[in-house]
Amino acid sequence: MLPLPTPPFIPLPSIHNLRSIGSHPTSHPSQHTRPTYIYRSASPSALTATDLHTLSSTLHITHVFDLRSTPEIAALHPLPPFPATTAIQRIWAPVFAAQDYSPERIAVRYKEYASGRTEGFVRAYADILAEGRESFRTVLEWVREGEGVGLVHCTAGKDRAERATEADGYRTGVLVMLLLGLVGVPDEEIAAEYALTEQGLEAWKPEARKRMKARGLPVEGIEGMMSSWVGKLLMEGRAHYMLATLEMVRQQYGGVEGYVRDVLGFGDEDVETIRRNLVEDTPGPAL
What phi and psi, each to the nearest 5 degrees, are found at residue 157? Predict the structure, then answer.
């Protein structure tokens, strides 16, 4: 397995797919997304004390947004309370609060749509946009306030649910799409960021097999699933899925800004404040 590129990845043994969503070009030629403001990852449920220290003291993370559903958290173990010695606050912001939106369940849910075709992934991501209003609004309200450093996660960071949704990877991926799209990051750049999850989750594959086994699937069935469309749903991050999703957002909502305004309910001042907080000036060439 090749080492992950750093940046954007921050390799930590107990948390997969951890990376910054910063340093992307925006519609403003002299600005880029802030590199140390928002991170994304798979679930940090197995976080070690050493890696917690890195999140708190090195990355200075203050807010962790958990996008998972109640059944997911129950099945995969809830996050333990962050110690009072850290400044980290966990915020539960589920996209699907009561539904089992684990990667495996998502794959089954969307089988009829996602037999490897882009349309299935777009359909799943459209559901996430429709159901995730409160979740996404919570995160954008935090961005509007401009305090602290954030980490957003679901189960696998692409949200392997996203995988079926195939989107930062899925719930997380859809959220990152909104954040980057709102400041005018080009579609191709958003799609490339999305596709990084395939690299970031390579080390997660053994864990996925273990979880499938825990759900009662026979070994031969697990290996068959991992090599079939289900494995592709859970493990691949294809840029063209995100490009198609961005086109769907344009057609259905008039673009990311239209979704943020009309669905999430943010006004002109809110949108401009959120944009301002997501970017920083790009240094000019050295003289």
Answer: 90, -30
Phi, psi of 143 (to 5 degrees): -60, -40
Got the DSSP string for the chain?
A: -PPPPTTTB--BTTBTT-EE--S-B-SSTTEEE-TTTEEEES--TT--HHHHHIIIIIS---EEEE---HHHHHHH-PPPPPPTTS--EEEE--SSSSS---HHHHHHHTTTT-SS-HHHHHHHHHHHHHH-HHHHHHHHHHHHHT-S-EEEE-SSSS-HHHHHTT---HHHHHHHHHHHHHTT--HHHHHHHHHTHHHHTGGGHHHHHHHHHHTT--HHHHHHHHHSHHHHHHH---HHHHHHHHHHHHHHHSSHHHHHHHTT---HHHHHHHHHHHEEEPPPPP-
Which pLDDT score, from 0 to 100, does residue 72 have? 75
The pLDDT, as a whole number, for residue 220 is 52
pLDDT in tens, 45-77: 888 999 999 999 999 999 999 998 887 777 765
Look up the pTM and report it.
Answer: 0.83
Q: Is the peptide bond before 8 cis (omega within 30 degrees of 0)?
A: yes
Q: Which residue has the higher pLDDT, 79 or 278?
A: 278
Contact 205, 226 (CB under 8 A): yes
Contact (CB, 8 A) for 149 and 63: yes
Question: Could you tell me which of 94, 66, 70, 96 has the C-alpha nearest to residue 81?
Answer: 66
When pLDDT is averaged across residues 259-283 and rounded to a whole number, the result is 97
Q: Is the pLDDT of residue 174 over 90?
A: yes
